[in-house]
Amino acid sequence: GGSDGIETSSDDEDSNFNYDPTAHSDDEIGGFISTDVVASAAATKALVEDLQQLLARNQRLVQDTKLLIYAASDAPLAPDLAPPDLSANIDIHSQRQRTQELEAQNKLLQAMTAHHLNERTTFDARQRERIEMAEMATEEARMWQVRHDLVSQNLALKFKNTTLESYQEKYEECEKARKRLEVRLMAQTDGTDRTREVFSRIPKVDDDDDISQITLQCAAELDMQLNVLKELSRTQTMRIETMNDEHAKLRLDFAQHIHVMKTRVVQLEASMNRQHERIASN
Asked: What ranges does the record give for the region Disordered, renumbered to this chain (predicted)?
């Protein structure tokens, strides 16, 4: 009985593996291997790819199922429900080292940012200082030009005043000469109550007519010179008044300019002091 059972199992095994005890030739064996091996390799590769895709879908399905369980349950997940591959794929030591490196880089970047901010603040302060210094230099040049113009105008005024004094002296001398001629003319006339205009109309009746005519001509010339000098004096007086007004206006503008410059210097000093205090505090 035992031998029958053994023979039956051997027949089943032969039927399962399709065992053929008939011997094959070498050519048949080579052709069988060459064709069947290639087909088997392609089928195996396709099967492996299908299994990998199935495994990936299975892993996603497992993760989605656990997420649904976590969302549906009030209690937190048990430790065994966590995906086994998450903790296995994480290297705690390397992650900690990477975190420390990132923290060091973050601190370095923060220090560099603070340094750049300080440099930017210092650069802005120096730029403002350069701009203010340039403005002060421009104002200083303008002030020097105004001062130079004032000096030139003062010299011109002094020269014109000197010229006017000479005209005034000539005018006074001519006025004195005119008065002396009038006195001589009045002394040569018969009537002391006649004016010089009436005396000029007297006809020539005596021997002193030539002398009187010469005296009248001299008086007329002196009158013309006096009129010219009076006109020159009036013109010079008007010019001097105009120049005095311009000089007063220039002095006022110069005083205002000096006040503005002093105010800007005070503001610049205050700004520099605040900048030094800010740098010292940093």
From this structure: 1-23
Tokens of 265: 């210097």
Q: In one letter, which amino acid is 273? A: N
Residue 185 CB neighbour total at 10 angstroms: 19
Distance CA 175, CA 196 (A): 15
Half-sphere exposure of 174 (CA within 13 A, CB side): 19
User: What pLDDT, on a 0 to 100 scale, did the predictor assign at position 193?
Assistant: 47
Which residue from 194, 170, 171 is spatially nearest to 182, judged by alpha carbons? 194
pLDDT tens digit sequence for 155-184: 777 666 666 666 677 777 777 777 777 776
How remote is the C-alpha of 212 from its chain's centroid? 88
Q: What is the 3-state secondary structure (H, E, C) of 154-168?
A: HHHHHHHHHHHHHHH
pTM to 2 decimals?
0.29
- Residue 129 and residue 137: Cα distance in Å, rounded? 12
CATH 1.10.287 correct for 128-281: yes
Q: Which amino acid, 14?
A: D
Distance, CA of 106 to CA of 58 (rounded, Å) = 40
Provide, rounded to the nearest whole percent, the portion of the chain with pLDDT above 70: 64
Element (DSSP H or E) covering residue 43: helix 26-72
